[in-house]
Amino acid sequence: MLAIKYSIFAVISTLINLLFQYFSFGLYSAFGSLYVAMFIGTLAGLVAKYILDKKFIFYHTPKDKKDDANKFALYSLMGVFTTIIFWGTEITFDALSTHPNAKYIGAVVGLSIGYIIKYFLIRNMSSSTKRSCYHELHSMGNVPKNKM
Most buried among 62, 63, 77, 107, by the most CB within 10 A? Predict the structure, then answer.
């Protein structure tokens, strides 16, 4: 069940990322527009994925806005490596092709690689590591036992 939910949420956040990139190019198409679009798309996709993972993967309810902001910061920090993969792949596809949609194909490939890596990291954690991550990074003390 985890794989199905994680996959669905990855697709949703990828679509949001691409949609925001597309709109960004519509609003700004001058120097550095690819980097602006990637940044905006990344933020939109990150927020969407955080909300979905928080509610339906980790079953976390923040204590307050400060707690939620702290968890979001940790969640964002954990995605730096996969973001580098995604951005690098998108930039590479854009640089190697003259087709205007190559960057989007690169984005899908890069995001897919990143989400697959994250999924296997979550899936392959030992039970004690999962419990530790739940409690430390996501304050999961209120998670039903059958959800781990």
Answer: 107
Structure tokens at 63: 């204590």
Q: Count Cα atoms within 13 angstroms, Cβ side, for 50.
A: 21
| Residue carrying the six token digits 């959800």 | 147
- pLDDT 10s digit of each residue in the chain, 148 long? 888 999 999 999 999 999 999 999 999 999 999 999 999 999 999 999 999 998 988 888 899 999 999 989 988 888 899 999 999 999 999 999 999 999 999 999 999 999 999 888 877 764 444 555 555 555 544 444 455 4
Cα–Cα distance for residue pair 21/38, rounded to 1 Å: 6
